[in-house]
Write a structure and sequence with these properties.
Number of strands of chain A: 11
Helix content of chain B: under 10%
Radius of gyration of chain B: 14 Å
Mean pLDDT of chain A: 89
Low-confidence stretches of chain B: none
Largest sheet of chain A: 7 strands, mixed
Mean pLDDT of chain B: 92
Distance between the termini of chain A: 31 Å
Order of helices and strands of chain B: EEEEEEEEEEE
Shape of chain B: globular
Strand content of chain A: over 45%
Oligomer: heterodimer
Number of helices of chain A: 1
Distance between the termini of chain B: 41 Å
Largest interface: A-B, 23 and 25 residues
Helix content of chain A: under 10%
Strand content of chain B: over 45%
Chain lengths: 119, 112
């Protein structure tokens, strides 16, 4: 058990809808990362938050947004869903944000993911 | 453009075989390399390699980094069916913020 909790495990919804995925990081971790994984694309980095602030953006669509709350849990909002958004969405956490030796030496720990199916 | 390439893409072996998975990288400001094992759910952390030539070991798994030739290998000896998974590697890149460049993974199937 990585200590990272994601809910829900599975989500099935129709095109055009909006969903919210939730992530609780490991105790003590300040950074949260969101990844999308589809069969043919591998792990695609979406966005990172550190202690409530956005730190880095990857291939995140404008229809997607995220935030990290004061208690450090994070939510990923996906709107105007399309069939191509069907994927596994992972949240990962780490102790640091990427600055300083200790940050680079802290690996990411992943949650079990949310499987999103858009029909 | 930063990239990480894993090979082979897919591998099928018999229990007891030894396998070597490769991860080569071309990135700027390389800091370290991570290996993960992904079964049906979350990638689970295996190794972090920062220094060249120093082998990290965990049971039947071991890994080493070559920063001159820009690659890492993951060895699994005496494979078991429970080793069947996708093995992912990622290069950690330094900058204003840590960035991970992921490979597409090697799918390993160990047959009894």
């Amino acid at each position: 058990d990585s200590g990272v909790t994601q809910t829900p495990k599975h989500l099935i919804t129709a095109t055009g809808q909006r969903v919210t995925l939730r992530c609780s990081p490991r105790s003590g971790d300040l950074s949260v990362y969101w990844y999308q994984q589809s069969l043919d694309q591998g792990l695609q980095f979406l966005i990172q938050y550190y202690n409530g602030e956005e730190r880095a953006k990857g291939n995140i669509l404008e229809r997607f947004s995220a935030q990290q709350f004061p208690d450090l849990h994070s939510e990923l909002n996906l709107s105007s869903l399309e069939l191509g958004d069907s994927a596994l969405y992972f949240c990962a956490s780490s102790a640091g944000a990427g600055q300083g030796i200790s940050s680079y030496n802290s690996p990411l720990h992943f949650g079990n993911g949310t499987r999103l199916t858009v029909t | 453009e930063d990239k990480v390439v894993q090979s082979p893409l897919s591998l099928v072996v018999h229990e007891g075989d030894t396998v070597t998975l490769n991860c080569s990288y071309e990135v700027t400001n390389f800091r370290s390399l991570l290996w993960y094992k992904q079964e049906k759910k979350a990638p689970t952390f295996l190794f972090m390699l920062t220094s060249s030539g120093i082998e990290k070991k965990s049971g039947r798994l071991s890994s080493i980094l070559d920063k001159k030739e820009l690659f890492s290998i993951l060895n699994i000896t005496a494979t078991q069916t429970g080793d069947s998974a996708v093995y992912l590697c990622a290069a950690v890149v330094a900058g204003n913020n840590r960035k991970l460049i992921w490979g597409l993974g090697t799918s390993l199937a160990v047959n009894p």
